Amino acid sequence: MRHTTGHLRTALWLASIGLPVLPLRAGKLPVGNCPACTGSMCGDRPHMKAAGPCQCPAPCHAWAAATTNPDVLASPVWARAWQQAGAVAYHPGGAGLTVVDLDNADAVTWARQILPGTLTVPTARGEHWIYRGAMQSANGVRPGVDIKSRMVYVRWYGPGTGTMTALPDVVRALVAKEAPTAYPAPHAMSVPPVAGPGECLHRSPAYLERGIAMAEQSIAGAQDAIHNAVYRVFLAVLSKHGRCGCLTEAHVERLFTAAHAKGESARHCTAAWANARAAVGV
Predict the structure, then answer these.
(1) How far is residue 87's CA from residue 128's CA, in Å, rounded to a whole number?
(2) Integer CA distances (angstroms), 132 to 84, 92, 152, 234, in order
(3) Mean pLDDT lowest for which of 21-35, 162-176, 216-230?
(4) What is the DSSP letter of 74?
(5) Which of 132, 135, 163, 218 has the most CB atoms in a 10 Å sphere around its CB?
């Protein structure tokens, strides 16, 4: 008879109803038991959408590891992961679903006023509204609102209440207006000087160096929502240092290197940089 932990029992039940699942350790992070993919360096990358999980059989590839196969879920190589697990997660896009993640009371109030009713699940800080239909995922589409569907995972909080309805256009539009309009070449990163009063506000090279070092640390310290964290850091750097011409391609390469170390692809980096430049107007 197969021995199962409580989390594995939940995972097997979810898999039986068609939800691809994976274990999460404390902090809602994937179990990093593959040295080459620690911190989901493999599973969070865009190429995984086409390639699927890499050859390592362990469940350390974030959304790309999620499966409905009960033999994989209960296999010996996953056993250690389930024993360390703090929660169960699922890949909504893999089941043809979209989760509107409402992270606070204001976001929940907005959803009740704007969005069609659907299956609703209480979470630690807000609610998950789950719709039938998959779409592009995006973080921060509104204050306290993330869209989780393809290429992401969502923590399972329970079955919720209400009846699941079709994904509405109003939710799709939240991501469509956030989508980048262009993806510049990875090395076309130089920031053009912007006409100003003629005096550099950085006061000294050390001031700029300190700002770049702090930005690298912020990226390195991000624990989740990496795409959104990288964009926020890029936006902060450009807001502070992007207008006088002191920011060089070498500085930008340092930021990109920090983002790559967190698992960001060149595509996501260039898109985030382009969006941040557009927001700042440089």
Answers:
(1) 16
(2) 31, 10, 16, 34
(3) 21-35
(4) T
(5) 135
* 46, 154, 261, 262 from 37: Cα distances, Å: 14, 19, 11, 11
pLDDT (tens digit, 9 = 90+) per residue, 135-194?
988 888 899 999 999 888 999 999 999 999 999 999 999 887 544 433 333 333 333 333
β-sheet bridge partners, residue 273: none
How far, CA to CA in Å, does 201 sit from each of 190, 198, 229, 237?
19, 9, 26, 14
| pTM, entire model | 0.59
Half-sphere exposure of 28 (CA within 13 A, CB side): 13
H and E: helices and strands count for the chain: 10, 10
Which residue type is seen at 130?
I
Bridge pairing between strands 119-122 and 165-166 = unpaired
Tokens of 50: 């086409």
Length of the chain equals 282
Q: What is the DSSP secondary structure assignment for residue 44, as one 8-state letter?
A: T
